[in-house]
Amino acid sequence: MPPVAGAVDDPRRPGNPGANPLLSAAARGTPPPRGGKGHARAGYSPVDRAFASPTVQAAAGAVDALPARRAPREYLPPVRLPIVILSDLHLGARRGSAGTAADLAPLLDRAATLVINGDLAEVHHPRHRAAAARETLALFDLCYARNIELRLLSGNHDPFLSDHRFLLLRDGQVLVTHGDAFHPAIAPWSPAAPRMRRTHDAALARLTPAERGDLETRLAISQHAAYAEWSASEDHAPGAEGGRPLLALLRRPWLALHVLAAWHRNPRLADAFADRFAPQARFVIVGHTHRPHCAQVGGRWIINTGAFGFPGRPFAAVLDDTELHFVRLVRRAAGWTMAAHPARAWTLDAAGTDLAADLRPGDALPEAATRDRRSSAA
Q1: 302 with 292: CB under 8 angstroms?
Q2: Dihedral sign, CA of 212, 215, 220, 222?
Q3: Do the domain assignments include residue 174?
């Protein structure tokens, strides 16, 4: 099917938020309605519920109990190599963003699949919602025109943009998730952190021990808790993307201490999260804290791709059939490009039959991926 104008609205394209008329309405500047029958208990507006999975709704108390059997998920085609992974673009924000979808075009030259690991766009920010929706749809158009698979994983700034919160790649060697689920307060440096932690803990208390050990359910709770930051009022917390984060830190200097503490703790929190939910992973690729780094904890590498805004710098994780690269991104006149040489590179273990196959919630882990990753680390 050749690309055509408005192709992102084609409902035949799986996993496409453009098929949802509410996102298209947001792109036209139509404000989403608030409240309404059936939405009050969870606190979600209809536009949010359109993106919320049954598991998220259950965690929010919108239904009486977690579903015993989840509905079949939408078909997702196999992930094609090479894969370019980015995070924290915050499209739609006037400051601290990657700019526009068109600015990302040079990066697509290296990709057969583009994974956005959370915080693609400010779709829940009232001042930036329309621009964020337009840029999201433009990115779908851009990838569609180039026959590039686009995978969106939701983050704390776009918690319902996608129903997908993680990927396990290369027989489970590589876990990709935004990183907001590592801490019960989601963003402990945010003025809204106490509210998010209360929301998280209340949802967690409603689960059985078995349910608490389920990766998809735990990510759904974090998804619900992240929304608490944006649902309190139309005026978002100071320091949110698109505002003046440096000024917010100067006004609240103690927040800087929370930021520094989060940077220090994040690698170990990521390692502990992977130990519990994806112990086979040798690499955990995250974003969220806006601080790019590669840290080895035990035998596992924690890779943070940074951010396109303050206080971070953007990097890409590039996965091909044999290696994983950590590459600095450089802004040029034509848009964002990759540095000529990676900052770090790792050789991956030989994978199974389908090197690009990914695991999704509910899938059984292959036997090759269940080995003790620490004993195999060099």
Answers
A1: no
A2: positive
A3: yes
Beta carbons within 8 Å of 142's beta carbon, 6+ residues apart: 101, 102, 104, 105, 108
* 299-310 per-position pLDDT tens digit: 999 999 999 977
d(CA 86, CA 150): 11
Torsion of CA 110, 114, 117, 123, to 10 degrees: 120
In the predicted model, residues of the chain with pLDDT beneath 70 are 1-78, 231-256, 258, 351-378
Does 74 fall in a domain? no
CATH (domain of 199): 3.60.21.10
How far CA 208 is from CA of 150, 160, 212, 218, 244, in Å, comes to 34, 24, 6, 12, 41
Which residues are paired to 347 by β-bridges?
323
Res 163: pLDDT? 75
Q: Is residue 340 in some structural domain?
A: yes
Look at residue 161 in the predicted model and tell me its pLDDT.
Answer: 80
DSSP lists the bridge partners of residue 26 as none
**Is 2 a member of any domain?**
no
**Tokens describing residue 75:** 């078909």
What are the structure tokens assigned to 159, written together?
Answer: 């918690």
DSSP β-ladder status, 323-332 and 335-338: antiparallel
pTM of the model: 0.76
CA 73 from chain centre, in angstroms, equals 18
DSSP 306: B
Nearest alpha-carbon partner for 307 in 241, 255, 224, 253: 241
- Predicted local distance difference test score (pLDDT) of residue 182: 92
> In this structure, are residues 161 and 120 in contact, taking their beta carbons and an 8 Å threshold?
yes
* Domain span including residue 161: 79-376
Domain count, the chain: 1
CB 199 within 8 A of CB 225: yes
User: Residue 141 region, left (φ>0) first, then alpha (ψ -120 to 50), else beta?
Assistant: alpha
- Starting at the edge strand found earlier in the chain, the sheet holding 283-286 runs 293-297, 300-304, 283-286, 174-177, 166-169, 358-359
CA–CA distance, 175 with 360 (Å, rounded to integer): 11
Task: Give the pLDDT confidence of 270-299 residue by residue, as tens digits.
Answer: 999 999 999 999 999 999 999 999 999 989
How confident is the model over 64-112, as pLDDT tens digits? 333 333 333 433 556 889 999 999 999 998 888 999 999 999 999 999 9
